[in-house]
Design a protein that fits this description.
Four copies of one chain form a homotetramer.
Chain A (H helix, E strand, L loop, with lengths): L1 E2 L10 H10 L11 H13 L6 E5 L2 H12 L4 E6 L3 H4 L4 H4 L4 E4 L8 H13 L8 E8 L10 H13 L3 E6 L2 H5 L8 H7 L2 E5 L9 E5 L8 H7 L8 H10 L4 H22 L3 E2 L7 E7 H7 L3 E2 L1 E5 L4 E7 L6 H10 L1
Parallel strand pairs in A: 1-11, 3-4, 3-5, 5-6, 6-7
Antiparallel strand pairs in A: 2-8, 7-8, 9-10, 10-13, 12-13
Chain lengths: 341, 341, 341, 341
């Protein structure tokens, strides 16, 4: 059956499998000390305009978030995040497992504002009991957010400035970064992220890789002994090049951008039809996720023809269903979906 | 200077010091295996109507909450609490240090409702992604709450029933329990707590003891190996009787109740005068804490004559100040305070 | 340059890449709920003779050990392991990060004996202070060990019986299991492991897979909510089939055994030549690792012609170097190595 | 019955109870911000010759060790300790609960040597895989040790120098410090500890206080935000002065020394008689603990007349029993014991 249920259902860009096949029985050093991982790191440094950046390859968003956040914080520190953020809701308590509180802020369309951060931190320091409280020390945002929305460059600049004025670090979760970078109207580049954030990760799993997320610390040695703590978190690959080769391929000849663009364009086509046909979208964005408000009857009817992702109950009579396109979505699939709507 | 800043400023009930003095050089077994601790445990079992109860003596509310909550939960489980609860805000991340997320609910006057708990837990199970989320497994409430408010017996019965219908345990923080038990209009007894909760603690530090909190598990062996985990949490006293003697004394001849009653009556006297003089109280209760809304000028003026506790900024022009009476508050102190208002 | 430095330097069995390539744009469910992972689980259940087994696919030995051990233990419990065990030495404190003490026993050639376990546990219970100590609750062994040695079936039966008589669980790390199963003289099958251990893992990364380790709990529901705790440990793959397909392929047509056999046979050839030429081996085994005692001069001389793994300094004048064969080692490589010796 | 079972069986020095009684209803600030705690801190700073020292009052050895060690280490770091050290064996895994490995060294009479530390750390850095291992960062020793033995000044100077040359911090557990300071032949003063260690604690619980351990960081701000982490560990007392007053009293008019001296002198008297009567002592020291090797029959016989502490089984026929004197031991008790031997 036709499926738009999520963006991590297809293997990976064929270019990656081809590269893997060409390795043959070449012997590669372990733990990321191989030539391919080094090449991938250099390509990412160049793409990020951060020649001194420390780059590491981990596997999976939760692992990456938990490892980066835990190692950037001291035990008494916490991470500010949107109440709807992935680290707040959908990581099974991985941040708390590392000993840190997620300091949740109300969010709009998955985004938090610089002013909220300032208010929270000022409130912390103004509180006579703040030494009995978790100190905010890091801000976690995702670009795009879990709702597919994007921070504008202006918003990001403000958040970055607010963070640094308040002695907080800024960390950006880019699980779906390709889909953000290439979205119509997006004005935030990877170089902006490297300039404005203290750490970010470039998603591979959901953006055309078989697996892998590339953690980037634009400033060298941001987290001393990060390697050992990656090991301690169970996140170090013996065959580090298995992740490195994903990014070495994705960052060759603009593949990452092309894959991102495919998903966004397909989603835009679908959005256009939805608008024409009078469907209501819950949170509008231009990335690869569409949140469709449907009556329960309509959702039930559609479910026999196409697999969508269940998002949430909107009210008694309506549900929100998610349509996710991906790097692999074809025109034929979109045609078929459109014909069903 | 006159002070109503908090309820843990005075040593302890003279009866306790007397008992300590009488020990002389008696040799007592360590780690709670002494005759005094055993006597205290039995008196608490009787007061709670729970002859099989496991009773342990710890020191300090944060330690007690962190130890009980951590040991009652499995790693994937979290604790539901009011967003304003002590475990949510004022324990420096002690619950998260133990690896657990505090699942915060909005609260009114420090209280959460059975219906909120049911809605949260039902929502968890209804969520298709709940296996990626922290499982709610324990409800934390405080009696009285941080705002001095009290759950009625009806509310507590409902919360208890909701918890157990949803396979959650119920834990009650009684840091100021004496002041709750003896408050005008309170209808919740210690026997009710033992009947309705899976664990609760009887506060000593703020209720007339030099230190110490008595953890009560009404059902035997609720937490196997709790003793060892108390040790692991750094919460085991070599001189266990130093805490045990507090409760052995407090639970003799109704001392705990008398001390509680003193604070509540003094607070009631103050509340009466405040009403007569037209002061506005923020959250009305009948326990030992009064939250007074004052203009910043009035607060500043008062601060030269009496020490109150700063609670929070109400708005641009007003602050909330806390008046706390205690087991030790005298009529003379109340007279003096009243004369200043 | 010729290299026998380790067994995780080559990509993976070509059969696996072929399967990956054949997936094309097939859409597969996430988090292990796909048809390929299910097929792999069934093949493993059959190979292990454990039709009810719970099987999960994780990535990397440290992650697997940390997740299994942490979730099998309660907070007051610890894991018994050889002092030279991987969890004791080479996991950067991952077990302790999860809050558990590794209770280290002296070992011989990487192995511990049933009698040592019994003695340790009996000593624990006999100690009047055992409630102040970490309770032994799980035994960790590796098959083969870090030194390539193997437990015999008799030894394993004794360890298993001792564990269960003493109320300990038994967990076997099979990072190099293929090389153990196929070693000359080995009498321990996968069915034996499933019968004797409470949990074990089948190594993929070092035995022909691109990545992946298959955790097997022979008894259903050994660890309730393991899935959520895998997520909490950052060990859950969105593209679960990326690991599942490794094992689905490895457990088809005896591939896992063939790959294991190749490494062992190549190592046996090398051992034979070493003996003939009078080299001294430190710890003799029949699996894929050879530990060669060399003078520093000889080691230096060899290092210009072949890459070996440095193991340790033996004494002032001698070092131990490791020769590791793998699933991919060819006769030509062995010939070349032999010619250098 | 006569008891020499341990040194934490009697209440506390009468001077402390007297001081507590004199407080009456004086109102004291919370969390250690009171005049008495400040006075105690100053007296300790003076006794330690460390005018800038940060001093905190915690309760109990395990709590103190876990809090200090956890807050002095980064997540990838571990603590070196004697295999027989309290943190290694008798704290129920409290160090591991904080996420850190105890790197155990063999010890002689409870002591480790500077050369062992150097060898361990050099070995760590020389190991090609050290980035996969727990980095040694802190050395834990106790003075006196769990066996009552003492480091000489020369040994301590060497350990301190070795630590600092190898970039390790040094932490000294002084649970029984009074008994070490006053022991015949001891040449290590509190000023030496402050000069040579990065942190140490002065035991109150076992040395005449009702409770309390004073943590001393000779250099200001050794652990930034220690206060908040004390809270996070559940180790912050609301009535901080309850611990502060112990040390304010113990450090007035040489009380701490007098109490220590009493125990040591009483132990020396007993040791003299034991020698005269031909008893065999297991580990000879001049502090307050005597380890007596007895046949099981003799131990059984004695157990009807005097309570001793069981230490361990020496061999099939012999046990080691501990005689502990304390600050409170009287000549009459010693006479009675001597008459039984």
């Amino acid at each position: 059956m036709l499926s738009f249920a999520s963006d991590y259902m297809e293997t990976c860009a064929p270019e990656i499998l081809k590269r893997l096949g060409e390795l043959g029985k070449e012997k590669l050093a372990g733990y990321g000390f191989d030539r391919i991982s080094e090449s991938a790191r250099n390509k990412i440094r160049e793409a990020a305009g951060a020649p001194e950046a420390d780059v590491y390859f981990l596997i999976g968003g939760t692992q990456t978030n938990a490892t980066v956040i835990d190692t950037m914080l001291r035990p008494y520190e916490g991470v500010i995040a949107a109440r709807t953020g992935h680290v707040s809701v959908h990581e099974a308590g991985a941040i708390e497992y590392g000993g840190h509180k997620v300091l949740e802020l109300p969010s709009e369309e998955g985004k938090i504002r610089a002013s909220q951060i300032a208010e929270y931190v000022d409130g912390y320091w103004a509180d006579g009991n703040h030494e009995h409280m978790v100190m905010p020390a890091l801000v976690y945002i995702s670009q795009p957010t879990e709702y597919g929305s994007l921070y504008t460059l202006k918003e990001l600049v403000e958040i970055s400035r607010t963070c640094h004025e308040h002695h907080l670090a800024l960390y950006v979760d880019g699980a779906r970064l390709a889909y953000g970078l290439m979205a119509e109207g997006n004005d935030v580049t990877m170089k902006d992220l490297a300039r404005l954030a203290d750490a970010f990760y470039i998603g591979g799993t959901k953006c055309g890789g078989l697996l892998g997320e590339a953690v980037v610390f634009p400033k060298k040695n941001t987290v001393p002994h990060f390697f050992t703590m990656v090991k301690q978190h169970g996140a170090l690959l013996a065959k580090g090049w298995a992740a490195g080769i994903q990014f070495d391929t994705l960052f060759t000849d603009g593949l990452y951008e092309r894959l991102g663009k495919n998903a966004d364009e397909k989603a835009d086509r679908i959005r256009k039809v939805l608008d024409e046909k009078g469907y209501v979208q819950d949170i509008r964005n231009r990335t690869n996720q569409i949140f469709l408000i449907l009556t329960k009857e309509k959702a039930e009817e559609l479910s026999h023809k196409v697999e969508l992702g269940f998002w949430e109950n909107k009210d008694e009579d309506h549900v929100v269903m998610r349509i996710a396109t991906s790097w692999a979505t074809t025109d034929e699939e979109v045609d078929e979906l459109v014909s069903l709507l």
